[in-house]
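Protocol step 4 of 5: obtain the predicted structure for the target chain.
Materials: sequence only (see below). No template structures provided, no constraints applied. The aim of this step is simply to have a reference model before the mutagenesis design in step 5. Sequence pasted as it appears in the construct record:
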Amino acid sequence: MTSRFALVMTVGCGPAVPESPAYYDDVRPILLANCVRCHGPGTPGHRRARGAWRADTWDAAQGLAGVSEVAPAITGVAGIEGRMPKEPGPLPDFQRDLLLAWADAGWPRGDRFRNEAPVFEFLFPAAVEQVTEADATLEVEYLLTDDDGDACFAKIGVEGQSDEATAELGGGRKTTPIDTSVLATGAYRLVATARDGLTTVEGIPSGPFRVPARNAAPRVRWVSPQGPAVLRTGDSIEIAWEASDADGDAVDVRVEAIGVGAAVALPPVQGPWTIAGLSAGSGWSFRVTASDGELERADESDRTFVVLE
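Step 4 output (structure tokens):
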């Protein structure tokens, strides 16, 4: 069978693509790790994609090359806008080549197999009884591998804290900063969650670290609105955020709508707000800033908005 899409092949030292890759053996881990967050049941990508394309089942995924808007973007055909996946980024050459080889082989299903779980290790702070001191930032070093060669990802957070963890981190040996400025004085550990699309490993502990005596920065998180993408003057939207301080200090909050070269102050009150004072155009976002009188932190909406009159 001839592949339906042209692809510039690259030569590297990675693993060889199987001659006849199968869904359960080779393809499913790639799709679950990279596509299902948007192309799963009821997700936005599932609703938008032509033919309601889903990546989480063999019956749906075998139509990959039949969905004209999806397959070229995944396989990296030149000139295609909106290359997928948007996060964490384009697939490595090996994975794109494997998807094309799967299409050429006639979409074989294969058998469910025993998946090797991803392996995550904290290199610093290492899981030993050696306390590291962290005032404002902790530079974390980790190693994330997968014996199957699956794409793997991890998130790291502070044990016992309700804050959102880091954004998804890629595999390999890497470093990433962890903000410890919002933590009260005391001893802590980090915990990691690692996944490869089929298996998720949770609660992986780091070594201990200690936050010295000093003023903790306030915590702040923008909650709402995160959508819809279009706002109309005169409409009512729900304004919400979360702000606190680990030291128990009083927190003052400032709320703004941020546009291109413009900042419009909003009432620092949570609840309904009637859209007013925002010029028509794109690129608007919302920002909340929390201050304890000495330190301040800010957070913005995850997406930008278009404002219509």
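Step 4 remarks: Helices lie at 23-34, 44-48, 58-61, 71-75, 93-104. The longest helix spans residues 23-34.
Proceed to step 5.
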